[in-house]
Amino acid sequence: MLLIRFKINIAIFIAVFLTICSLMYTSQAAEIRQLDRWDKQITKGVLYSHYKLKVEEKPLHIFVVWVSLTDPRIDIRPILANDRLDSLETVPAMARRTGAIVAINGSFFNRSDKNPFPVGFIMSKGRTVYFSHENRSAFGLTARKIPLFGYPTTKGIIYIEKTGDYFELKGMNRKRCNNDALVYSPEYADRTGTNQHGIEIIVSNDIVVGTSKGDSVIPGNGFVISLHGENKKYANRLSTGDKVRLYFVVDPAWLDVYNALTG
Fold first, then answer.
1. Which residues of 78-194 form beta strands (DSSP E)?
2. In angstroms, rounded to a whole number, what is the distance separating the alpha carbons of residues 107 and 174?
3. What's the average pLDDT block by block, 10 residues per block, for the chain (263 residues)?
């Protein structure tokens, strides 16, 4: 990824806190002592802190990045492994590739090489790149870098302009299952990777340009609607040349969110 001149790219995958040790829950409040703290100014507007604590006589290290949300040079957003969802990449490699000065691991994901995928809601630069019906906590930033925490619910909808009909999607950018209705965007991969037991509608620039049974090429300027089982009936509503829209319905409080990630 090319860096914008005079702009600092910070790949942030969760909020600003990363705890590397876990604690056993007890019925009583734990005794916490701060033993030491180290600070390092990474650049203007970005401070790194390392806390050394003792909790019930057990060591605890906490790493914190303090980021100024008012500095126009600072860019805070999620980064995908190798810029796609069907891939795995270490956090240091992602930081080196993007030129980020801070990178924090975040979200939950499947580590399988055969089917890597994230869990929850991901939005990057105003584009929804992944959603599921798992109601997980999320951290978001508006275009003005106003932070938001919550449990956003998201629905994907395909709208057919010629009839005004629409149908809901069960997910996006993941492995297709029985009776699924999914959408694949360019962030997923070059192809959908599905089997031949479904129907896929290929959309470019919001126009249906073709169909296939599976493993469709995903247009760089469009998406693929992938239907299986009882949901293949929706393919009968669409023909080549039809204009369709992909919409995402989110909670009203999250309408202005520009970048987001679940944790």
1. 103-104, 108-109, 118-119, 122-124, 127-130, 138-142, 147-150, 154-160, 166-168, 171-172, 181-184
2. 15
3. 36 39 50 91 93 90 92 90 85 92 81 70 88 80 92 90 94 92 93 95 97 96 96 94 93 90 81
Number of CB atoms found within 10 A of residue 75's CB: 18
By C-alpha distance, which of 107, 22, 101 is closest to 65? 101
CB within 8 A of 126, min separation 6: which ones? 143, 258
- Structural domain boundaries in the chain: 1-106, 107-263
Lookup result for tokens 């790949």: 11
Between β-strands 32-43 and 108-109, what pairing exists: parallel, antiparallel or unpaired?
unpaired
Q: What is the token pair recorded at 42?
A: 């990474």
Any alpha helices (H) in the chain, and if so which ranges?
A: 91-98
Indicate the pairing of strand 118-119 with strand 127-130: unpaired
Q: Are 1 and 103 in contact (CB under 8 A)?
A: no
The structure tokens 């992602």 sit at: 94
